[in-house]
Design a protein that fits this description.
The chain has one domain. It is 58% helix and 5% strand. It is built from 4 helices and 3 strands, in the order E-E-H-H-E-H-H. The protein has a 3-stranded antiparallel sheet. A hairpin with a 5-residue loop joins strand 1 and strand 2. Helix 1 runs antiparallel to helix 2, helix 2 crosses helix 3 and helix 3 packs antiparallel against helix 4. It is globular and about 50 Å long.
Length: 153
């Protein structure tokens, strides 16, 4: 992984320099996340935050009005990531979709792993079954930062 894995091209598009293994990982995350989006798993709360914590009626109304639209937006970003995972160049709209999809997966994975700002939850034993999930989380964090850097003027 290099810091120049994604960079803005002269014509305004973005050059993607990720190895096949990283592209395979990104492609594999999309269907897993899409399946999760269709569930009632509590880990999804990070993607659907509470708008009215002190008013159950307003919160129910809000969820009925917004959740379907949010779910469609999350699914569309995953589809864009999946469909362009092998692309060598992306336009800004496609890269923004990558950013949204990567962020969604990071939020869900971070919630599942109970990630905190302190980072004390990280396994120190390489045989810990969470080690791979933390590696994926760290990779997605790096990739999201690289995308943000590339999009910045």
């Amino acid at each position: 992984m290099t810091s120049r894995a994604i960079r803005r091209g002269r014509k305004g598009n973005f050059e993607i320099r990720l190895p096949a293994s990283e592209r395979d990982l990104l492609r594999s995350l999309a269907p897993q996340m899409r399946e999760l989006l269709g569930s009632d798993d509590p880990v999804l709360q990070r993607l659907y935050p509470v708008a009215y914590p002190d008013d159950e009626d307003r919160e129910t109304e809000y969820r009925l009005l917004v959740r379907g639209e949010l779910q469609s937006s999350h699914a569309a970003a995953l589809t864009a990531l999946e469909e362009t995972a092998d692309a060598e160049r992306l336009d800004e709209e496609q890269l923004l979709a990558w950013m949204r999809a990567v962020n969604d997966v990071r939020l869900v994975l971070g919630t599942r792993l109970d990630v905190t700002e302190e980072g004390e939850e990280r396994p120190t034993d390489p045989d810990d079954p969470r080690t791979t999930a933390f590696a994926v989380y760290d990779y997605l964090t790096w990739l999201q930062g690289t995308i943000v850097e590339a999009l910045s003027p």
